[in-house]
């Protein structure tokens, strides 16, 4: 990172040398005049725009009146060297801009001039535009240089420049290119900067060689600069003003054909802006002054020129009575407009004094003033000088450079815009950029807005609601407030569909050079779409990341935390920036607005620029209550010279690659828009940073501070050195990138060495993210146990920067903790390397020495050889209790010695009945209003990998889903019933249960109860959120070794829902509505009930497959295994089985065999078959989940597959031929029995499900039976098949057992 400060000024006139020549005769003068006239005609004809590209212009007469023509000077065309970007590994840096104290007149004026040994290219003659003929040259800018009389002109050598496909020509791209970039972002900010290229992409395309590109800026070049033509003046905007003389303006943005490489001069009496907040009330007139502005000021009392200042009296504005009164009148008209709360981002069209925006500053509203390009007084420049957000744009045929649904309010006062003309296209553009439900406020001195031709008809066609109309006597303005519809219902009711709805391929998100279409974009309807809901109130909005972001929420949060740390720990105090004189800030490559958010506490505003070639994250920035625009940095920015006090560029140049023909124009533009003495912070690669420093020095920018890191890349260097040290010592080791390491192999690694950096907010680097997630899930999963990695020894070397405070080497410490929790032994305590201390190399060498001694079996002084790094299991509950709060159950006590089960009350607090109410309930709830999932339960379940949905539901990704995403086989339901495991969502609408089974996977961290007594969520909300959370978990599998992209894409659209995650789904009162919604989405349902709610089974609508858990066959064993809460549990159990008999759809008994508990009751099980007569019987061995205070099961209670098969065969024989062995899944230790008369047709089993047929039957509403949607079972799934139920289309994965040392680098 390097910090620059700009020069204090630049000469406003050019110093030139010339030789005096003898006077010419009259005839010679006449001949020259004629020749010059003919030349002018020829040049004008050649270079003037064609009819297809002509733009309507407006006159700027003040330029000619203000600036005198300089004396004639000799004109030389010099050239310079520059190259395309060179992709290398390097690290990031920051840069600052400081100004020297030398005189303006000594600043050289020239174009780049390289050394004799350097390659050269002509900056004034770029490559041809796509629309130019080969023999046609773009117009060359008229520039002047200082030359000695005897100095010879350098010979020019041209270097070919790649075509840019018209991207930087200022010409609108073709309409078919209208496509929004995907929001698939890379991690661009980290504590350490490694290779900027995507390592995963390199692995996916190992055969594809990287094309070596030249340097972005040639290190050998020398630069001398010319000033822009004096006629262009001190206020020149290249893509707005005509380049020739600055006296006219383009009606719409149109950039010069030749890249602008000249420097804009300063006003003669330029002075640094007045400090904020005085700045908003007065500015230096000479900084912005010109004749037209002076004339305008004379006619307006709220714009006074007093001495050297232009003063804005706080009690006066363009609104009579003051802007504050004007806003108060709007408040009275529309009380729903809550400034600074639900209204945060406003657009003010037709900038005058920016009084509207200044008044709203007091209400915490950020108002972007849009100065129109055809406005001659340059009041947008005045607003910027005052420190008020402003930009320059055109209301013409193209979209404004804002995303759709960006602004909460759009305001237009006396802007004299014919909104209804041309079919109301401008209003259609306002409709695009206005947030659904947002307000459009328009005011005029004409009093009655209805009299304006066509305005009412246009608003009606847009279905905008007229909220209020008022004629204010004080301001003498007629104000009308419209509101854009928040939904599509009003659009659908239109009698006349004009304007029509836009086609799906007409993307409303794209805005750069996109023409406005005569069509209406629909309001977002899906909850997953941005704009379907209004953002949170400010300032909560800044740090609230909405659900429509999906898996980007974590990225936005990480970006926010990263920039908060950088700004607080570095920018505010460590760079020497005078923040008291900093008001206007430009982030040249914003991502999620993290930099702007980090500065929200300062008295600054930030214009966030999202480059058009980058992922489209500008909607996220506006959603957070910030402002920004789209821009292509190969072109000049739409603002005035000297607009900003600070520029921030984070890897802007390295991301440009070879996009710009002449990247030098970006630095020229930075010099134009940054005020003298302003600051620039540049974070870049070293191969770009070094030549960039030389260029900025040639512009007389001062380099205040430079912070660099190892160009080779710290992490790769240390990992390679460690591998070499170990190899030299003769130790068998295999260095592996963490991204390519399969965590399933970790238990077989005897010695694990990790070199690990810390990235954003203490997170591990992206390459180690999956390994970190695996460790965290395993440590929280009771099934894994604390001895999973008991044979693994490990040592970790962390790399980070202590400047990041609490997150310094947080990733290394986290990995160490998780490994120890899984039983691994830490042979050397974590060593935390600091890149800023200067002794990283020494510390690393010492650590390597200890590692080698450990690898050779030696002891180390600070090691932990032989000592377990595990941890004692955390008990989540106290003594067991059968507490229940039903009043009519006398067998249950209300309070037992003041102790209560945590599962029952979802907390540790004691509950006592007082006056018929339960006192002391968590969350302050009473009698059924409390939430089921309290913070204690939430924490416990989330540690186990659950995603909590609402207040009582949950979803979790299944290990078989992960397996089939990698093509490594599906679960037993795939083998038995043909589900696609990678498209199966495991969920529950009720985390509560009426049992406390001894084999519960969750060790009773979920609540229990006999009836629904909690707050109830809407079933549709549960389904929507569950699917969203499931998709997020599936998306996290992206980049995991072995995951197949096509299966990952399918996995994002679940087609099956296993309502069997945990708890009792059927307890949820709205279970039928929830099931209907799943079926409506063509998601099949597999619902499991624990046989304690027979009435619920009877009223249940058709389910794809309904299960009843038959955990035991006798009353005594059922009480011992399930430990039910109901005193009449056995009767409820039997009634549940009988209720199953009346169901027409597929039904299943699910038996979980526990050796020593229920596996010996085979005769009793056979007697239960006649009660429910299920279609299928699933028999599965219990899964060992580890021991706890609530379960004393051991591995001795887990049956082998042979035991399950034997039990199944005997049970089938005792059924008297009603059931036979149909399928098996050896891996799950599971066997399926099926009814012969229903599912064995012509000797072949039909246990699979025709899911499409099932959804047809459900949709029809007619009665149907289980045989109506059955399908043939494949041979590999049939009982006794050689495959054992493993799908041959999948790849059987067997863990590779390694016995060498594994060295991983993050």
UniProtKB/TrEMBL annotation:
A Pfam family it matches: Methyltransf_29
Keywords: 4Fe-4S, Iron, Iron-sulfur, Lyase, Membrane, Metal-binding, Methyltransferase, Nucleotide-binding, S-adenosyl-L-methionine, Signal-anchor, Transferase, Transmembrane, Transmembrane helix, tRNA processing
Annotated Basic residues bias: 83-107
GO MF annotation list: 4 iron, 4 sulfur cluster binding; FMN binding; metal ion binding; methyltransferase activity; tRNA-4-demethylwyosine synthase activity
Predominant subcellular localization, coarse grouping: membrane
GO terms, biological process: methylation; tRNA processing
Biased composition range(s): Basic and acidic residues: 128-139, 172-182
Start and end residues of each stretch annotated as Disordered: 68-212, 859-926
Protein name, per record: tRNA 4-demethylwyosine synthase (AdoMet-dependent)
The organism of origin for this protein: Brachypodium distachyon (Purple false brome)
């Amino acid at each position: 990172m390097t910090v620059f400060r700009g020069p204090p000024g630049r000469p406003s006139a050019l110093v030139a040398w010339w030789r005096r020549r003898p006077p010419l005769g009259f005839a010679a003068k006449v001949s020259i005049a004629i020749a010059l006239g003919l030349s002018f005609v020829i040049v004008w004809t050649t270079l003037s725009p064609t009819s297809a590209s002509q733009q309507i212009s407006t006159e700027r007469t003040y330029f000619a009146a203000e600036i005198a023509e300089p004396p004639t000077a000799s004109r030389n065309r010099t050239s310079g060297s520059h190259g395309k970007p060179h992709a290398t590994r390097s690290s990031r840096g920051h840069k600052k801009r400081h100004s020297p104290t030398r005189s303006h007149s000594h600043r050289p004026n020239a174009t780049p001039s390289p050394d004799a040994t350097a390659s050269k290219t002509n900056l004034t003659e770029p490559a041809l535009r796509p629309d130019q003929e080969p023999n046609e040259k773009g117009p060359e800018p008229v520039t002047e240089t200082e030359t000695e009389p005897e100095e010879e002109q350098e010979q020019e050598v041209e270097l070919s420049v790649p075509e840019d496909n018209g991207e930087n020509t200022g010409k609108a791209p073709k309409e078919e290119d209208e496509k929004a970039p995907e929001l698939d972002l890379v991690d661009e900010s980290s504590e350490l900067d490694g290779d900027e290229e995507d390592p995963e992409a390199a692995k996916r395309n190992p055969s594809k060689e990287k094309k070596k590109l030249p340097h972005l800026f040639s290190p050998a070049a020398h630069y001398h600069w010319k000033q822009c033509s004096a006629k262009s003046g001190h206020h020149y905007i290249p893509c707005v003003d005509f380049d020739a003389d600055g006296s006219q303006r383009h009606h719409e943005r149109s950039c010069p054909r030749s890249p602008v490489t000249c420097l804009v001069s300063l006003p003669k009496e330029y002075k640094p802006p007045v400090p904020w907040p005085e700045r908003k009330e007065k500015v230096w007139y000479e900084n912005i002054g010109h004749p037209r502005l002076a004339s305008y000021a004379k006619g307006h009392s709220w714009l006074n020129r007093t001495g050297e200042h232009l003063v804005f009296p706080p009690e006066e504005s363009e609104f009579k009575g003051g802007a504050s009164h004007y806003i108060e009148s709007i408040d009275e008209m529309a009380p729903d407009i809550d400034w600074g709360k639900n209204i945060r981002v406003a657009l003010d069209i037709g900038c005058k004094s920016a009084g509207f925006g200044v008044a709203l500053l007091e209400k915490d509203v950020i108002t972007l003033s849009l100065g129109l390009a055809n406005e001659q007084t340059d009041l947008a420049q005045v607003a910027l000088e005052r420190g008020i957000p402003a930009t320059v744009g055109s209301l013409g045929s193209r979209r404004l450079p804002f995303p759709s649904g960006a602004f909460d309010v759009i305001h237009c006062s006396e802007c004299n815009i014919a909104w209804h003309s041309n079919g109301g296209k401008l209003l259609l553009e306002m409709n695009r950029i206005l947030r659904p439900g947002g307000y459009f406020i328009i005011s005029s001195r004409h009093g009655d807005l209805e009299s304006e031709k066509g305005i009412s008809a246009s608003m009606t066609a847009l279905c905008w609601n007229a909220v209020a109309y008022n004629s204010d006597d004080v301001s003498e303005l007629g104000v009308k407030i419209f509101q854009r519809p928040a939904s599509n219902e009003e659009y659908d009711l239109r009698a006349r569909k004009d304007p029509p709805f836009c086609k799906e391929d007409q993307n409303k998100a794209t805005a750069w050079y996109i023409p406005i279409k005569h069509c209406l974009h629909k309001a977002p309807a899906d909850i997953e779409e941005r704009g379907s809901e209004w953002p949170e109130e400010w300032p909560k909005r800044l740090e609230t990341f909405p659900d429509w972001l999906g898996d980007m929420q974590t990225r936005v949060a990480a970006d926010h935390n990263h920039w908060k740390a950088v700004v607080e720990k570095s920018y505010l105090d460590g760079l020497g920036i005078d923040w008291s004189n900093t008001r206007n800030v430009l982030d040249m490559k914003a991502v999620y607005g993290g930099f702007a958010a980090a500065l929200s506490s300062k008295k600054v505003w930030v214009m966030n620029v999202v480059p058009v070639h980058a992922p489209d994250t500008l909607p996220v920035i506006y959603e957070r209550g910030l402002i920004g625009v789209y821009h292509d940095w190969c072109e000049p920015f739409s603002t005035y010279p000297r607009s900003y006090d600070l520029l921030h560029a984070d890897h802007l140049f390295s991301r440009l690659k070879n996009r710009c023909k002449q990247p030098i124009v970006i630095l020229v533009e930075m010099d134009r828009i940054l005020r003298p003495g302003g600051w620039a912070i540049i974070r870049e690669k070293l191969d770009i940073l070094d030549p960039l420093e030389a260029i900025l020095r040639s512009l007389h920018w001062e380099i205040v501070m430079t912070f660099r890191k190892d160009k080779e890349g710290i992490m790769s260097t240390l990992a390679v050195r460690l591998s070499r040290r170990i190899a030299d010592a003769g130790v068998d080791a295999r260095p592996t990138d963490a991204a390519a390491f399969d965590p399933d192999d970790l238990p077989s690694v005897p010695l694990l060495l990790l070199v690990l950096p810390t990235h954003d907010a203490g997170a591990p680097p992206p390459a180690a993210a999956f390994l970190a997630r695996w460790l965290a899930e395993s440590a929280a999963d009771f099934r894994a146990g604390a001895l999973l990695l008991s044979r693994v020894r490990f040592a970790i070397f962390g790399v980070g920067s202590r400047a990041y405070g609490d997150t310094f080497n947080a990733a290394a410490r986290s990995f160490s903790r998780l490994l120890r929790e899984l039983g691994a032994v830490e042979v050397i305590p974590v060593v935390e390397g600091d890149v800023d201390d200067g002794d990283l190399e020494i510390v690393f060498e010492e650590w390597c020495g200890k590692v080698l001694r450990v690898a050779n079996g030696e002891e180390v002084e600070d090691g932990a050889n032989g000592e377990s790094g595990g941890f004692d299991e955390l008990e989540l509950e106290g003594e067991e209790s059968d507490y229940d709060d039903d009043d009519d159950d006398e067998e249950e006590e209300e309070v037992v010695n003041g102790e209560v089960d945590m599962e029952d009350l979802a907390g540790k607090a004691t509950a006592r009945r007082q006056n018929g109410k339960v006192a002391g309930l968590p969350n302050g709830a009473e009698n059924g209003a409390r939430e089921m999932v309290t913070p204690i339960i939430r924490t416990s379940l989330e540690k186990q990998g659950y995603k909590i949905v609402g207040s009582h539901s949950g979803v979790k990704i299944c290990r078989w889903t992960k397996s089939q995403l990698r093509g490594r086989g599906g679960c037993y339901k795939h083998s038995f019933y043909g589900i696609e495991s990678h498209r199966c969502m495991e969920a529950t609408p009720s985390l509560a249960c009426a049992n406390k089974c001894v084999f519960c996977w969750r060790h009773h961290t979920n609540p229990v109860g006999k009836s629904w007594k909690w707050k109830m969520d809407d079933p549709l909300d549960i389904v929507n959120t569950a699917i969203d959370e499931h998709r997020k978990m599936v998306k996290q599998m992206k980049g995991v070794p072995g995951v197949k992209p096509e299966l990952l894409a399918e996995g994002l659209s679940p087609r099956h829902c296993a309502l069997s995650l945990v708890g009792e789904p059927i307890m949820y009162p709205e279970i039928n509505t929830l099931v209907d919604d799943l079926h409506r989405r063509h998601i099949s349902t597999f619902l499991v009930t624990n046989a304690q709610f027979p009435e619920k089974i009877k009223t249940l609508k058709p389910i794809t497959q309904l299960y009843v858990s038959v955990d035991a066959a006798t009353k005594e064993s059922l009480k011992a295994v399930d430990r039910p809460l109901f005193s009449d549990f056995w009767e409820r159990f039997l009634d549940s089985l009988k209720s199953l008999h009346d169901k027409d759809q597929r039904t299943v008994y699910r038996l979980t065999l526990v050796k020593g508990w229920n596996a010996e009751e085979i005769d009793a099980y056979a007697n239960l078959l006649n009660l429910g007569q299920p279609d299928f019987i699933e028999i599965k061995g219990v899964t060992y989940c580890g021991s706890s205070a609530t379960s004393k099961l051991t591995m001795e209670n887990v049956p082998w597959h042979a035991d399950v098969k034997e039990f199944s065969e005997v049970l089938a024989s005792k059924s008297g031929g009603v059931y036979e062995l149909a399928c098996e899944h050896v891996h799950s230790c599971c066997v399926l029995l099926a009814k012969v008369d229903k599912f064995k047709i012509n000797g072949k089993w039909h246990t699979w499900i025709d899911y499409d047929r099932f959804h047809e039957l459900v949709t029809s509403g007619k009665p149907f039976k289980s045989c109506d949607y059955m399908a043939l079972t494949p041979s590999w799934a049939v009982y006794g098949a050689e495959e054992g139920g493993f799908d041959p289309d999948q790849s059987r994965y067997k863990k590779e057992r390694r016995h060498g040392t594994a060295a991983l680098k993050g």
